[in-house]
Amino acid sequence: MTFDAIDIKIMNALQRDAGQSLETLGADVGLSRNACWRRVKSLEESGAITSRVALVDAKAVGLGLMVFMQVRTHSHDPDWQMQFKRATCTIPGILSVYRMTGDLDYLIRARVPDMDGYDTLYQQLISQVPIADVSASFVMEEIKDSTALPL
After folding, report:
1. Can you list the domains of the chain with their CATH numbers?
2. Taking 90 as the threshold, does the pLDDT of residue 15 lie above it?
3. Number of C-alpha atoms within 13 angstroms, CB side, residue 140?
4. What pLDDT, on the 0 to 100 scale, is given for residue 1?
């Protein structure tokens, strides 16, 4: 996909504030409301914009502890992978799951209320899929956490 300067401006503006009106967005990027709407729809249809969401403050909703779980497995067969994918996609506190290269097989990013919440999440995961080893690191300070891509 190729994007022109206006497409880039639209995507940057929507990454900052997806709730702004089309009038405001159009004025910011130099388009009329209708032309701006057509561009946004085209970016959505092409898959460049996958969704428009509200970001919720985790601490405000009682999910103040972020944890990164490093997962190692003895099995790499397709059935285990499907079982792991199904388990991680259904546990609400799990936000991101990545299959990794190197010594680590998977990295999970999760949000929980506290250590008891982490233990509950951990127990849910290991009850659904056999895992060789899980270690966890807890975030003490969030220095930068952004969803905006550098366009």
Report:
1. 5-46 (1.10.10.10), 65-138 (3.30.70.920)
2. yes
3. 0
4. 85
Closest CA to 91 of 115, 130, 67, 124: 124
DSSP labels, 36-74: HHHHHHHHHHHTSS----PPPPTTTTT--EEEEEEEE-S
How far apart CA 43 and CA 80 sit, in angstroms, is 36
Per-residue b or e along 114-135, where b marks 16 or more CB atoms closer than 10 Å to that residue's CB: eeebbeebbebbeeebebeeee
Distance CA 46, CA 140 (A): 39
pLDDT at residue 37 is higher than 90: yes
Q: What is the dihedral of CA 25, 29, 32, 35, to 10 degrees?
A: -90
Residue 126, phi then psi, degrees to nearest 5: -70, -20
Cα(48)–Cα(102) distance, rounded to whole angstroms?
Answer: 30
Does the pTM surpass 0.85? The reply is yes
* Res 23 pLDDT > 90: yes
